[in-house]
Design brief:
The complex is a heterodimer of chains A (about 350) and B (about 300). Chain A is of the alpha/beta class and about 350 residues long. In chain A, a hairpin with a 2-residue loop joins β1 and β2. The radius of gyration of chain A is 22 Å and the shape is globular. Chain A contains eleven helices and 15 strands. Chain B is mainly α. At the A-B interface, α3, β7 and α4 of A face α1 and α4 of B.
Chain lengths: ~350, ~300
């Protein structure tokens, strides 16, 4: 089914169209095609305007623009290949941009040099360290690189790695490695942190541990740019989220604003006695199977339910259970793109 | 410099935890020592003194293999990528490899001398000052040569192929294994363009105390210049990302490392006496081994 996307391309702000820095003067929400100015924005730590990047014939970034305020946890949410990692690696100074304006802590990451690196911390999409280095050695080594530093002993305690202080990197579990990566990102007490898919590949328990850590950092008013393809992660951790798809920001706002923006879509969970084809029911924009039943997303839930009942009566099927839920961030994503985040 | 030293200390610890390092940096060189001393020298101290030049050279040149592979492996595994986010630059990372390797090579060299003294009863250690300088400069130079190879290769497989080719040439055409004098004359002249030849001949001259100050300084200077060129080329071509490829044209810069040895080779072939000295050293040892097959007690 075609996405009910209010295309943002034709409604970019004047500043973005002319390649002018979109922050910090004006705080914006870009939802459902409308760019709403909300007055002065707190000091921006990150400003991105019309960012473009191509890898050969593949256009990874096609004019990404956003700003991140000080003390904010800002999420880039999108599927694999949307352009999240390319964006964050350009902001970290690991990749060169093709065009566009980027400012991180008032510096250009490409030319920021030592000053830039002293002030930022990052967790890469995959962090690798030498196999034979111990946890405490890694922390001590990285701490030595910075003028401002946290005590490795304090980080070991905070990230529950005390028992593993003498363990070699190769002996750590995935969750422990990710906690170490976070500890390394904090070793210089940075003004800004980049977390690129910090929970990718982790089991639910390990993921919850990482969430707790990030929530603590959020409580400390750390400025964090987080990329993820987990909707619950963006929902739980982020103050604001930019939904990225195919190299563009297609929506931006707080998780609540994005959910409200898809208020036209309600999630209806049904359990039936027999399988059925529910995609053609009135108002239904998406159908998926889950937990032995179906989840329908509908812009007109009353009409959908009536159509459902008629369909079931006509086919001799039986409704075993029905549940309606308020729109989630996933609903918002589906409405924006016409597909699931993990399709 | 501070970053290099910090990294060096950690690298030394990591090396000592690696079984492969222990084998190739300790057991392998000592194996060569016992092979040369026990079989080639047959306990003849004079011959052993002569062969210490090649033994020490092989110990020092091992850096070439180890550091090139390590750098490429770190890049492939994404380890360098994490360091790119820190204030540590390429120069500090490369410098730490060289420094760590140097401090790891020295104990092996010292152990070789101790074995020669206590096991094979070698009493004379030649001009120790010259030996120390050449070992030091040689370890640093061959480390950087290895790092230069890593700067132009894209994966471990490619690195191993190129290392094998270069190592083969160093091993067999410099006097490190077969004495240079038994090779065809044209090969002897060609060997004068190899950095390994000056290391081997220089250490032999230092051990036998036959090297003139001019030759010693020439050998050391050529190795230092080669090292500096190799270091700067490695730094300029340094890549942090696993998928970053070096442009084909850039690979030609590696040849710049050979410039001092090319010039030295031209000079030695035209005006020098290096081959004459090498032949004289070999002949004196050859006579010594025939007169006194074994002085081993």
């Amino acid at each position: 089914m075609a996405p009910k996307r209010r295309c943002l391309e034709s409604q970019r702000t004047e500043s973005a169209q002319h390649g002018i820095n979109i922050g910090p003067a004006v705080r914006q929400r870009i939802i459902w095609g409308s760019a709403i100015e909300l007055g002065p924005m707190p000091a921006s730590v990150i400003e991105v305007s019309n960012l473009e990047k191509a890898y050969g014939s593949v256009h990874a970034l096609r004019g990404v623009s956003f700003a991140v305020a000080e003390g904010e946890v800002f999420g880039l949410l999108g599927p694999n290949g949307a352009g999240k990692t390319s964006t964050v690696e350009i902001l970290e100074g690991l990749r060169k941009r093709d065009s566009g304006h980027v400012s991180v802590l008032g510096l250009d990451p490409q030319n920021g040099g030592d000053d830039f690196r002293q002030r930022v911390g990052a967790v890469l999409q995959s962090t690798a360290l030498p196999d034979k280095i111990s946890v405490s050695e890694a922390l001590a080594l990285f701490a030595n690189f910075y003028k401002r530093r946290r005590e490795p002993a304090e980080l070991l305690k905070r990230f529950q790695l005390e028992e593993k202080r003498n363990a070699l990197y190769s002996q750590l579990s995935g969750g422990q490695k990710q906690r170490l990566a976070l500890a390394l990102a904090l070793v210089n007490d940075p003004e800004l942190m980049f977390l690129d898919e910090p929970t990718a590949g982790l089991d639910p328990q390990a993921r919850r541990e990482i969430y707790s850590i990030i929530e603590e950092l959020r409580g400390e008013k750390k400025t964090i740019l987080l990329t993820t393809h987990y909707i619950e992660e963006a929902d739980r951790l982020c103050d604001r989220v930019a939904v990225v798809d195919q190299g563009r920001v297609i929506a931006m706002g707080t998780p609540e604003e994005l959910r409200r923006g898809s208020a036209g879509t309600t999630s209806i969970k049904v359990k039936l006695a027999h399988p059925a084809d529910l995609g053609t029911l009135e108002g239904v924009s998406d159908v998926s199977e889950a937990d032995g039943g179906y989840v329908l997303h509908s812009a007109r839930p009353p009409q959908t339910i009536v159509a459902l009942v008629k369909h079931l009566e006509g086919s001799g099927n039986e409704l075993l259970g029905l549940e309606m839920a308020s729109p989630t961030l996933e609903d918002a994503f589906i409405e924006l793109t016409g597909r699931r985040l993990r399709d | 410099m501070r970053y290099s030293w910090t990294l060096s200390k950690v690298r030394m610890k990591l090396a000592l935890r690696s079984p492969a390092f222990i084998f190739f940096s300790l057991i392998f060189p000592l194996g060569f020592l016992f092979l040369y001393a026990g079989i080639f020298a047959r306990g003849n101290v004079a011959v052993l003194t002569y062969l210490m030049g090649p033994v020490l050279s092989l110990t020092v040149m091992g850096s070439f293999w180890g550091l090139s592979l390590q750098l490429v492996t770190f890049r492939e595994q994404g380890i360098l990528r994490r360091f790119q986010l820190t204030p540590v630059g390429a120069g500090a990372l490369l410098g730490s490899s060289i420094i760590a390797n140097y401090f790891l090579v020295l104990p092996t060299v010292a152990l070789e001398f101790l074995i020669c003294h206590f096991v094979f009863h070698m009493q004379s250690f030649g001009n120790l000052a010259q030996v120390f300088v050449l070992v030091s400069v040689g370890a640093a130079a061959f480390s950087t040569f290895g790092l230069t190879v890593a700067s132009v290769t894209n994966n471990t497989q490619e690195t191993q192929v190129i290392n094998n080719v270069i190592w083969f040439i160093f091993l067999f055409f410099s006097g490190a294994t077969a004495p240079l004098t038994i090779l065809p004359v044209w090969l002897q002249h060609a060997a004068l363009f190899l950095p390994a030849t000056y290391l081997v001949a220089g250490l032999q001259g230092a051990m036998l105390r036959t090297a003139s100050m001019q030759q010693f300084l020439g050998d050391a200077f050529a190795l230092i210049v080669g090292m500096v060129l190799a270091f700067e080329i490695s730094r300029q071509l340094f890549r942090w990302e696993p998928d970053a490829k070096v442009p084909s044209r850039a690979k030609a810069w590696v040849l710049a490392v050979m410039v001092p040895f090319f010039l030295l080779g031209m000079w030695e072939n035209a005006y020098g006496h290096r081959l004459k000295e090498i032949r004289q050293n070999f002949q004196s040892i050859d006579q010594s081994s025939q007169q006194a097959p074994s002085s081993h007690k």
